[in-house]
Amino acid sequence: AIGSSLRPLKQLQQITLSFAGTQVGDAGAVAISNNLQGLEQLQEIFLYFGDSEVADAGAAAIGSSLRPLKQLQQITLSFAGTQVGDAGAVAISNNLQGLEQLQEIFLYFGDSEVADAGAAAIGSSLR
User: Fold this and answer.
1) 96 contacts 102 by C-beta, under 8 angstroms
2) What's the angle, vertex CA 111, arms to CA 68 and CA 20, rounded to 5?
């Protein structure tokens, strides 16, 4: 329901959603991501999934929703304490490229399943 309520908010410039400590999983993250893509005026996005049930598929969906948001200046994503691993981190990193207005990125993966490959992908996307 939250995801679909975003659709008519075409002029939205900032969004903060926290699902920390909830049972939201990949299906919920996918629903949110499907509706973020139409928010082309978005400049700041803060999404907190810490200690939720989100894993790689949800993180990948959130990552793919970022690519069309060309006005983004700040991204904060928290997947701390989740089951997100290297595949999710790689998917996010692949979608950071091309966001030329981006000025600040905050990514939190503490106590997740992200290892060397995910960290390397995030690092290489910052070049």
Assistant:
1) yes
2) 60
